[in-house]
Design a protein that fits this description.
The chain is an alpha+beta fold. It has a single domain, classed as Sandwich (Jelly Rolls), CATH 2.60.120.620. 21% of the residues lie in helices and 25% in strands.
Length: 248
């Protein structure tokens, strides 16, 4: 592994049972999952915002507020334009080592299928991610933060918030912050990432970022999906597990 520090994987796997029993759902903040010099290079070589799709004021199900951001879904065709270190990082994320890491953290059998989708999100000033849980086909997400002290101040926000609904809200609903208790948050700077498992009550959100114009919160998210009939059907139709076409 050239990008991912396997000693970080080993360290985290020793804490897998603690992770699985974390409440209100499994989550953990991670430091130095990537080699420091490689993290710096990835920050410098992030994809150009011109490649991204604007996802502003989209109507969401269940009355939830829009998740406003610029988004770029990874697909094989991007290999032609991604910086070489990003291509290497994606290659390592598809490796058996990283898949085994997910299985260990979630307490899955060694042969459980793990299907990854990946995307970059850039969040402009004032944009937010309303409280939500993820689709049931998702086992969890690993969020990598790619801002540095040169372009971000923690006071501007952007942290992923861990929210506790006390088991009261059905997943197909739209609670606001008044109906949820904040029990934790990720950290943005310094080679940080955030891992969490999807459950019926894995509520999380990002409050409106307060950065100045010209700055954006920048993350790369790896989603681990189950092999469900929906995922299989999408693959038959040449789409990834999130429903994006693999070609193009």
């Amino acid at each position: 592994m050239e990008i991912i520090d396997t000693s970080a994987i080993s360290r985290l796997c020793t804490q897998a049972q603690n992770f699985q029993h974390t409440r209100p759902y499994p989550w953990t903040c991670i430091s130095d999952f990537l080699y420091p010099e490689k993290f710096d290079q990835l920050c410098k070589d992030l994809p150009d915002p011109a490649l991204f799709e604007s996802q502003m004021d989209y109507k969401r199900a269940h009355g939830q507020q829009s998740h406003n951001r610029l988004a770029l879904q990874y697909r094989p065709a991007l290999e032609k334009i991604l910086a070489s270190n990003w291509s290497q990082f994606v290659h390592e994320l598809h490796s058996d080592v990283y898949k085994s890491f997910w299985r260990e953290m979630l307490g899955l059998s060694p042969k459980t299928p793990v299907i990854f989708t990946m995307h970059w999100h850039y969040t402009p000033p004032g944009a937010s991610v309303s409280p939500h849980t993820d689709a049931r086909r998702k086992m969890g997400s690993h969020i990598f933060y790619f801002n540095t002290p040169d372009d971000w101040d923690e006071a501007w926000g952007g942290q992923t918030l861990v929210l506790d609904d006390g088991g009261k809200w059905p997943r197909h609903s739209a609670p606001d912050y008044a109906g949820l208790r904040e029990v934790g948050a990720s950290q943005m700077l310094g080679n940080r990432s955030f891992l969490f498992a999807q459950t019926d009550h894995s509520w999380h959100a990002v409050k409106a970022v307060q950065c100045p114009a010209g700055h954006m919160r920048k993350v790369f998210i790896v989603v681990a999906n189950r092999l469900t009939p929906q995922v299989i059907w999408r693959r038959i139709r040449s789409k990834d597990a999130d429903g994006y076409r693999l070609a193009g």
